[in-house]
Amino acid sequence: MPLDSLPLSVGFFCLGAVAIWFAGGRLPETGNSLAGKLGISATAIGLFVLSIVTSLPELSVTLAAMLKEGAPNLAFGNIFGSNNFNITSIVVLELLVAGTFLHNVDRARYSRTCVYLLILTGLTGLGVLVGPRMSSPVLPVLLFSVPIVAIFLHDSLTHRKVQGKKAAETEARDESGGTAGVVLRFLLLSAVVVAGGFMIARGANGIASHEFPGGMTLGHTFVGTLLVAVATSMPEVSVAYAAVKKSGLEDMALGTILGSNMVNVLVFAVGAPLLGFRFSQSAWAMISVSNLVSVAAALLLTLFVLVGIRSRTHRAGRAVARSMVVLAIPVYLIALYLVYRSV
Question: Distance (Å, rounded) from C-alpha 17 to C-alpha 320?
C-alpha cells in the first residue's frame, strides 16, 4: 500500500538509503572474517550468502507485485531493472580501481557464472516471447521455470564442490570476538540492509503512485524498471562498493552482483507458477513483450562483463575490459528510454 504523502515516501526512501549504505559498507569486512572462521572463501560468501541477503528486497517486491497486486509486469520490470542496474554499477567499480577490477577476480569461476546467467536470461526472454501464446498454464512452467531452477541449482552445487578444495586458502581478517560474535554482527548488519531495502522500495512505491499537478503519475511500470529497481539494488551496490573500495575484495563484490542477478531470475521463475492459484495461469502467460527490451539489455550487459573478465589474457586486456564496462552506460540508458516509450 502506498504511503499517504509524497514527503513521507521520499523520507522512507532516503532513510532506507542511509541505513543500507551504513550497514552495507560494513558487511564485506565482516563477511570476509566470517568466511575465514567458517573455513570457506570470500567468493562463496559473495555468491551464496550476500547475494541472497541483498536480493531479499527484490524477492519481497516481486512476490508482492505478482501475488498481492496481480501485476507480473511490475515484478518483471523490478527484476530485470535491478539486474541491469547491478551490472551497470560494475562500471563505477571498474573506474574506481583504475581498470583492474575485472582482472583481479577469479577468471574461471566468474566466466562460468556469466555464462550461466546468460543462459538463465535467455530462457527468461524466450518465456516472455512465447509464454503468452501458450494455452496450457503448465507448459510454460515446465519449459522455463523448471530449467531455470535446475540450472541455478547445478551451478550452486558445482561451485560448492570446487570451492571446498580452496577453503584452506582463506584467512580470517583480524576481528575481535569469536565465531558467534562475528555471526551475530553479520546477521545484524544483514537485517539492517534488508530493512533498508524494504523501506526504499515502499518509498518508491509511494512516489510512483503520487498524483502530481495536472493529474500526472509516474506509474508502476516505468518506476518498477527505474526507481524501484534502483532502490532494491542499493544493497548489492553498497556491499559491492565497500568490498572493492574499502576491503579490496573484488571476488566478493562481483560474486554479490552476479549471484544476486541469478537469485533475482530464480525468484521470478519460482513465483511465476504461483500466480496460477489466483488467475488460473502462470505469470509467463501475462508478461508483455515490451519487457524483451530489458531482457536484451541484460544479455548485452552480462556479455560485456564476460568479455571484460576473459580479456585479461590479451595484451590490450585492460583497455578491452574498460571499454566493455563503459559501453554498459549507454546500453542501460537506451533500454530505460525504450521502456519509458513503451509505457
Answer: 33
| Neighbour-count burial for 198-221, b at 16+ CB within 10 Å, e otherwise | bbbbbbbbbbbbbeeeeeeebebb
Q: How many CA atoms lie within 13 A of 64 on its CB side?
A: 14
- Alpha-carbon span 42 to 172, nearest angstrom: 10
Burial zone of 168 (CB within 10 Å; 0-12 exposed, 13-18 middle, 19+ buried) = exposed
Dihedral pair phi/psi, residue 275, rounded to 5°:
-65, -20
Task: Residue 319: count other Cβ atoms within 10 Å of its Cβ.
Answer: 12
The structural domains of the chain, with segments of one domain joined by +, span 6-342
- Residue indicated by cell numbers 525504450: 338
Single pTM value for the model: 0.77
d(Cα 55, Cα 57) in Å, to the nearest integer? 6
- Express each pLDDT in 66-117 by its tens digit: 776 677 887 888 889 889 998 988 877 777 665 567 777 888 888 999 999 9
Rounded distance, CA 31 to CA 239, Å? 10
Rounded-to-integer distance, Cα 302 and Cα 174, Å: 35
Q: 235 is written with which cell numbers? A: 544493497
Question: If DSSP codes are grouped into helix, strand and coil, which group holds residue 216?
Answer: strand
The CATH superfamily label for domain 6-342 reads: NCX, central ion-binding region (1.20.1420.30)
Backbone φ and ψ of 212, nearest 5°: -85, 165
Cell, residue 339: 521502456
